[in-house]
Design goal:
The protein is of the alpha/beta class. It has 4 helices and 7 strands, in the order αββαββββαβα. Helices cover 26% and strands 19% of the residues. Residues 201-211 have a biased composition (Low complexity).
Length: 226
């Protein structure tokens, strides 16, 4: 600023004003950086639950042939930590991929978490986060058989890979809408030695078709007194 004699006069701001101005700029900068980092670490921000399909690994596969001639597959998979709807979507995709790769009458997929058990005998109770029964051709099974049946625990897994929460049982229309998101199923990454063949116990195929899988407990949690 110039005075009447043409000399330049310096304007001095109080130290408190300078501190507030600099501090405010730093605060805004740090907040913006923090928001960027948080957004980078949380890809589900701005997404509806179930919009992203988590990766999965095939732990073990067992093929059965029932006495009535039906052939079905029971697959055990581990899914990356995710919420219930996303886990259900991955399990449905795995079931359809199994049926496409190995033509069968029924497919049962039991899904756990990547931090959970890696042996099918241990994948029960709270270690199960989702279950899907898929009949590619329902007319070949018992009358009234549905194409899709599923249930899942509506909660994220614990640090140990266990699931605690309500079990939800979507109706078939809901399952069809979820499947429509993935026209071409990709399935899970296979692991060495996951495939095994076995003879099914009497009535195993028909039991699975009706939603009563032999020796397989339901996922943890309860809904509606179930």
């Amino acid at each position: 600023m110039a005075d009447s004699e043409g000399k330049t006069r310096r304007v001095r701001l109080p130290r408190t004003v300078l501190v507030c101005a600099v501090g405010g700029f730093c605060l805004v900068s740090v907040s913006a950086a923090g928001a960027y980092v948080a957004g980078a670490k949380m890809p589900f921000i701005g997404k509806d639950r179930g919009d992203l399909r988590p990766a999965c690994t095939l732990i073990e596969r067992v093929r059965f042939r029932a006495q009535d001639g039906n052939v079905w597959t029971r697959a055990y998979i581990a899914i990356a930590p995710s919420d219930g709807p996303a886990r259900l979507r991955a399990t449905l995709d795995a079931a359809r991929a199994e049926a496409a790769e190995h033509p069968v009458d029924l497919v049962l997929v039991v899904a756990g978490d990547t931090e959970g058990p890696k042996r099918r005998i241990l994948m029960r109770d709270t270690a199960v986060g989702a279950r899907v029964v898929y009949a590619p051709h329902p007319d070949r099974i018992a009358p009234g058989t549905r194409r899709f049946q599923a249930r899942y625990v509506d909660a994220r897994p614990s640090a140990d890979g266990d699931f605690y929460g309500k079990t939800k049982v979507p109706d078939e229309d809901q399952l069809v809408k979820i499947v429509a998101k993935d026209p071409e199923p990709t399935g899970c990454t296979p692991t060495a030695g996951e495939a095994k063949d076995a003879d099914a116990a009497k009535g195993a195929g028909r039991s699975a078709a009706q939603g009563h899988e032999p020796s397989e407990p339901a996922p943890s949690g309860h809904e509606g007194g179930h």
